[in-house]
Design goal:
69 residues, mainly alpha, 4 helices
Length: 69
């Protein structure tokens, strides 16, 4: 593999990781603001839960119903 190809691939990977990091940070911020959609995306896409935020939400979340049964 040539150096130029390697650098191109590395730059694309770095850009992707930065974009994912920013997306995750925005979703966490939205979840803390009470967005059910953000909580759901965090759980489905990143397997990340925010139990303290989930506890304050008035809506029954699908995965909380399964745990309570």
């Amino acid at each position: 593999m040539r150096t130029r190809e390697y650098l191109t691939i590395k730059r694309r990977i770095d850009e992707f990781e930065l974009a994912e990091s920013l997306t995750r940070a925005k979703l966490i911020q939205g979840a803390r603001a009470g967005s059910i959609a953000a909580l759901t995306i965090l759980r489905e896409r990143y397997s990340l839960r925010l139990p303290l935020v989930e506890a304050t939400v008035k809506v029954n979340l699908p995965w909380r119903r399964a745990i309570q049964n």
